[in-house]
TrEMBL record:
InterPro entries: Bacterioferritin, Ferritin-like, Ferritin-like_diiron, Ferritin-like_SF, Ferritin_DPS_dom. Its EC number is 1.16.3.1. It catalyses: 4 Fe(2+) + O2 + 4 H(+) = 4 Fe(3+) + 2 H2O. It comes from Anaeroselena agilis. Residues 1-145 form the Ferritin-like diiron domain. This is Bacterioferritin. PANTHER family: BACTERIOFERRITIN. Belongs to the bacterioferritin family. It comes from the Bacteria. Pfam families: Ferritin. Iron-storage protein, whose ferroxidase center binds Fe(2+), oxidizes it using dioxygen to Fe(3+), and participates in the subsequent Fe(3+) oxide mineral core formation within the central cavity of the BFR protein shell.
Amino acid sequence: MKGNPKLIETLNSLLADELTAINQYIVHSEMCANWGYNKLHDQFEKRAIGEMKHAEMLIARILFLEGTPIVTKLNPIHIGADIPKQLANDHAAEAEAIAAYNAAIQLAGEVNDFATREILESILKDEDEHIDKIEELQDQVGHMTLPIFLTTQI
């Protein structure tokens, strides 16, 4: 099925966002593992795997729409030097993703591609869960102070 060129371009932009997030979250995950914060390592790794699934869904949809998935483009990756910076950078990435998915959902509706819109809505739901979890961790750091929070992540 030949898809709308503007929508395919938007899907490729979202794909670049997802591929960037995968890299950022994997680096943060491995940094946490290196520091001995195994619980954070597992959470960041799980989020990276979620983003991989989003990338897979986007690639499949682009191919279905007879587009070419662009997997060589990454956006700037923001690696945090410590846990608060990692969480802040990840929060910013998720906030940008949520805005991008909302815009893409609107575009899919405008071009009457409701199947693509449904896929994007399912990914948006996951992104909402990601930002909620990041905010939960940020709140815990704020309530406990960073040193106490980190002792709970070993």
